[in-house]
Amino acid sequence: MLVKLIKRCFEISCFPESVKRAIVTPVHKGGAKNNFSNYRPIAALLALSKAFGMMAKNRLTYFLRNNGLHREQYGFETKLSTTAACLSLADFISINSDSSKCVACVFLDIGFNSFALTDGSSMCESGKVAVYRRKGVPRGSILGSDSLKTYTNDIGKLNLKGSIQLYVGDAVLKYAVTNKANFKDAIEDLLTVDN
To answer: Which of 20, 22, 42, 110 would bridge 140 by S-S if both were Cys, CB 3.0 to 4.6 A apart?
Structure first.
């Protein structure tokens, strides 16, 4: 019965409002504790929301793998771990440096902030806030990393002069040039990504 309900919701593009609720626990990342941006939101979701999320994740993963997940999209993919991303970047730097090229890398955080309290309320004393989400995916949800990958994947399709490596919500623009004056391409690419 539950599977039929969820499939029907996908068919009519409906995600029930009652399932969009989560208990969000702000976890301190470091820095001043009175600065709201120094907290990472972790969402405790309803079981029904998790079931929706698992089915949506399976569909999204299938779609991404069969419709152009960027070849250098690392993170939460089989054999494409953080270590693989670091090794790929180290290889790029090493190979180009050995060829007497100038190497530059621009590191970008291109994720989105999912810690918006829709009603503007502050954290209650327990450190938890019930949040009603109208759009987006709560951090900590099953779809969190895949949502970021779909958000960032198209950046890899831009006509950049350098190459790009993606790790979920982060990116590295990589350049290897024969002379430092050619690094103006990096500035042009940054303007392209920013738009």
So the answer is: 42
